[in-house]
Structures are given as C-alpha cells and as structure tokens.
Amino acid sequence: MTMTTAGVLFILSLGVALVAVHKPFGDYLYRVVSGTRHSRVEQGVYRLVGVNPAAEQAWGVYARSVLAFSAVSILFLYGFMRMQNHLWLSLGFDPVVSHGAWNTAVSFVTNTNWQWYSGESTMGHLVQMAGLAVQNFVSAAVGIAVAVALVRGFARSRTGELGNFWVDLTRITLRILLPISVLGALALMIGGAVQNLSAGTEVTTLTGGTQTITGGPVASQEVIKELGTNGGGFYNANSSHPFENPTTWTNWLEIFLILLIPFSLPRVFGRMVGQVRQGYAIVAVMAVLAIASITLTNVFELAGNGTVPQAVGAALEGKEVRFDVSNSATFAASTTLTSTGAVNSFHDSYTALGGMMPLVNMMLGEVAPGGVGAGLYGLLILALITVFVAGLMVGRTPEYVGKKIGSREIKLASLYFLITPALVLIGSAAAFATGNNSTALNVGPHGLSEVLYAFTSASNNNGSAFAGITVSTPWWNTALGLCMLLGRFLPIILVLALAGSLARQQPTPASEGTLPTHRPLFVGMVVGVTVILVALTFLPALALGPLAEGL
C-alpha cells in the first residue's frame, strides 16, 4: 500500500467515525446543557462555591463570572509554578521564572497552551497534574459554556437570561470531559502511553553513555489536551513523543478526540433552536473547510516541493517515520483547524506551501470545526455576517433563525472579527520594530513566517509554533501572553453581549423574503465569506512570508 493510499484511508476512516457519532454524541451534549436535574456531586460543588443553580444570569453577570473564574485561575496557576520547588513531586525543579510563569498561566487558562519551555525539564508532576491538567479541563469547559450561552440567545426570546455559568461549567466538566478523558487515558495506556509518577529512569545508550528517561502522568494529560483542544504537551516533543503518542492507531485516536466535540456541537445548536437542519448547515460549512484544508496540506507535503525533498523522494524532515508524511499532515491540519496546537511533526520543517496551511487554518478563525465551543460561536458570528451581506444585496433586514440582525448585532459581530487580525498584525509589527524578530536559523520570508506564526497562534489561542525563535525572553513571554489574554476574553465578552441582545428580541416569523439558512446555497455563502475575509485581511502578510518562499 502506498503512502498516499494509506493517508486517504486514514482520513476516510476519521470522517466515517465523526459522522457516526455526530447525532448520538451531539444529542448527549444537548441533554447535558439543557437538563434541569443536578447530581449529588454537582449539588455539592454548588454549595461549596455558594451558587444557586436555579438562578440564571444576564449576559453581563455571565461575562463577569467567566472573567472572575479565569482571573482566579491565572493567579492560582502563577503562584503554583512560582512555588513548585516547595511542593510534593517537584522533581527538584526550580521555580518557574516570573515572566515564564505569567505566560504559562495565561496560556493554559485561555485554552492556548503555548509552551516556551520543555515540560519534562521545567514542570514537576504536581504542577502538571493539579495545575496544567486541571486548566485543560476547565478552560475547555469555559469555551463550551460560552457557545451554549450564545445558542440560548438564539433560542430564547424576550428575556435577558442566558443560563448560569457555574452550572454550565460544572456539568460540562463532570458529565462530558471527565468521563471521556478516563476512557481515553485507558485506551492510550493500552497503546503504550506512559502513566506513572516516576522521576526518571537511567538507561545505557547504544554508544555506552547514560540517559535519563522521564516518566510521569502522561496519558491522563494527553487525552484531555486533545479532547479539550488544549495542545500543551507533557514533553517538549509533544505528540511526536512515543510516550505521548506511541503508534499509528493512537495517532488516529488523538485526531478523533480533537475533532469529536467541535464537530458535534452544531447538533446542539440545531436542537436548541428547534431546527436541526440549521445545525446540519453549520457542520457542513465546517466539513467543507476542513476537507479542503486537510487535502491541500497533504497534497503540498506529499508533493515534497524543494531540492532536498525531491532528492530523497519525500518531505520527511521533522516527521516521525511511524506516522509518515500523510498522517503527519492530517494531524497538523486538524490541530490548527481547531485551537488544539498539539503537534506530531515539526511545522517549521514543512514545505513552504505545506507550512502555510496550518497558518491559514488559524487565520480562518479556527472555525472548521474550531476549538471546543470557540469554533461554534466563531462560525455562528460568520453566519450572521453572511446573512447581513445577503440582506444588503436584496435590500432586506437580515434575519437568522428568527432573529433580526440589526446595527447592534452587526457591530458586535464585526468587532469580534477584527480583534484577532489586529493582535496578529500589530504584534508582528512590534516584534520587527523592537528588534525581537531575530530567529535562530532563518531569515527572509521563512523568518517572517516564524514571527507571523507565533502571533497568529497566540492571538487565536492555538498554541502550536513554527519555532526557530527564542521565545523564552521577557519580551516574547509578555507580548504573547497579552495576545493570548486579549484574543480569548475580548471575543468572549462580545459573544455574550451578542447573546444578550438576541435573547431580548421577539422572534421574527419567516416570510417569502427570508433567506433560507439551511440550504447548500447558504453553506457556500458562509464558506465564501470566511475565505474572502481572511484573504483580504492576511494576504499581504502571507505574500511576504510563505507564498514568497513557496514561489
């Protein structure tokens, strides 16, 4: 079997599995976020934090709850890392430097998981388990909760209430993320992933030297980093390390976990608004963009354009032979189409156009299918923009699932879309203006791509890197930390404000002039608007970076 054939079968099997679970798992997610009963464990959590589960919140209160929870999480995680040398299972590591602790705390709380450090030589086991892994759960739950709040804005009328953040956070964590993570961790352990509290084992190498092989609670962190589209690895090599991702079938499983929740959430949208076909339209947009991206990434990498790849017959630099070129390219596309950022190959070593695709995936806004929660609310905002554009064409007030899109709604949607490009372009310009753009190995277009990739990854809360830049400096840790913080919470505030505005509206009955938003025409329009907006915003930067290098 050729590498191309194996890669096609790998992708097809993923597609079949995602289609098979879309309805049953989406219905389960719907029951979790729409149910009214609370388990005893959940009731205990509510009493512990002093929350009345029956009390709902307006958008402002919901937003303040998100911000307060996240602020406390950042402070706790920062202190945890700064004091790790006094903690159990510290493995003798020193406290994390202040600017690095700030960056990492912000990174994991914002679901970015950008890592300027080598995990196995910087973080003790307790910090990994009780600090970083915990944030992998709750930051993912925050994203899903915000998406559900926006959907409630579409589904409800003449009310200012969007649910209760603390109830949503608790239910999503305990009923969705935790059970799947337990099963997934067991599967990864069966496949060969490590799960222990070892401080390291010394072995003799083939050359007669000694090497310390670090163990740790790897499988349990690996599964939630993929399921929650987090991406931060226990090891510096991330998912290319055999202790995190041992075999081809564990590689398949990890990609499946990355895509599982984002591709199922549109079903929740359809069920909650009472029009299942609207959910199918949203998932169709995701699928079209994802298939195009995965296909192009595979084509560019399998073509192996470049002197050295052509000479050896494949673009194998920076790739694990157990995953080959195609499975590595599929992982790279999946992890940047979502906000995961995990890597099983070195994106900096991809061909020029192959390396451009992960960058473009993030620039699309990570909506195909995007991060858990963030992908859905990002695509719904693009759907609103599409409806607004269509309304201008025919001279009608735009409507979407029974809600009018007026000046307030389109202003909020436009501001949402403008935040990330502003952060990416201003951040990249600041790096060059201050002389912090120097790279270890590359200059010219590829060096520009490395800087552009870093700010795109941080601002979109992805966390993957081209690398090639020394980002462990105070300037880089501070700048990228600010991009992660603003790129996460400014959009969330705008999404919740939009949800509140929609929830207060009275439903508008469909009429002869209402644009059908469940048909292939609308799917194509949303795809077009998404691609055109990205092209207009980022094409000049791409032309100076990966396109210039590729051509």
UniProtKB/TrEMBL annotation:
Membrane disposition: Multi-pass membrane protein
UniProt KW keywords: Cell membrane, Ion transport, Membrane, Potassium, Potassium transport, Transmembrane, Transmembrane helix, Transport
Cited InterPro entries: KdpA
Transmembrane segments: 61-80, 87-109, 129-151, 172-194, 249-268, 280-300, 374-394, 415-433, 479-500, 521-543
Assigned GO CC terms: plasma membrane
Subcellular location: Cell membrane
Molecular-function GO term, any one: P-type potassium transmembrane transporter activity
Family, per entry: Belongs to the KdpA family.
PANTHER family referenced in this protein's UniProt entry, alphabetically: POTASSIUM-TRANSPORTING ATPASE A CHAIN, POTASSIUM-TRANSPORTING ATPASE POTASSIUM-BINDING SUBUNIT
Function according to Swiss-Prot or TrEMBL: Part of the high-affinity ATP-driven potassium transport (or Kdp) system, which catalyzes the hydrolysis of ATP coupled with the electrogenic transport of potassium into the cytoplasm. This subunit binds the extracellular potassium ions and delivers the ions to the membrane domain of KdpB through an intramembrane tunnel.
NCBIfam families, per database record: kdpA (TIGR00680)
Assembly and interaction partners: The system is composed of three essential subunits: KdpA, KdpB and KdpC.
Listed name of the protein: Potassium-transporting ATPase potassium-binding subunit
Organism of this sequence: Verrucosispora sioxanthis
Gene: kdpA
